[in-house]
Amino acid sequence: ETGSTPFEVLSTMRLNRASDLLATTNMKVNEIATEIGFNTVSFFISEYKKRFGATPSEHRKSLTNS
To answer: Among 6, 5, 31, which residue's Cα sits nearest to residue 17?
Structure first.
């Protein structure tokens, strides 16, 4: 019904949760990757950048500069 695969829906939910954690906690990127269910930090960073156009660290830095 959504036009997305179950994997895409789950990935979107995980990445949105990661974005929330970056904005509201001091958790390290590797801790967030593990928390949301990614097996490797590098894959998490790659998927995050595809979704949001910035790495998790870049995104967090932009939030603190706003």
So the answer is: 31
